[in-house]
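Here's what a typical entry looks like (DUF302 domain-containing protein):
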Amino acid sequence: MPDDGLLTLPSAHSIDETISRFEAALKAHSVTLFAKIDHAAGAADANMPLRPTVLLIFGNPQAGTPLMQANQEIGIDLPLKALVWQDADGKVWLTYNDPAWLAARHQLGSAVDPVVAALGDALAALGEAAAIP
């Protein structure tokens, strides 16, 4: 489990392609995309520079509800989020919260360990579908 709770994958694709692939993977797994926030567009509207940075907010009540039943405060971290961003060298990355870290943060207890593990596996698969060739 990473110290900061973030898992980051390098993408072999452009920003747009990584986002498109992530959205397709969500759809293929019947996961709802609630919002897509283009932080760079917001920065541009404020006349401030920002490299491409897009936040995807997504989830599935069957996965998230058991976690909130264990501790409703995890709702502050749900729905889940993925950040697709470009660094100063032009490299594209995909970052998301580690579900095990979120479970520890919110002291969910071992009763939801299977749900947390399944969620971790699902996020890893979504990330790989988006970032790996």
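Helices lie at 15-28, 39-45, 61-70, 99-105, 113-131.

More examples are in the samples folder.
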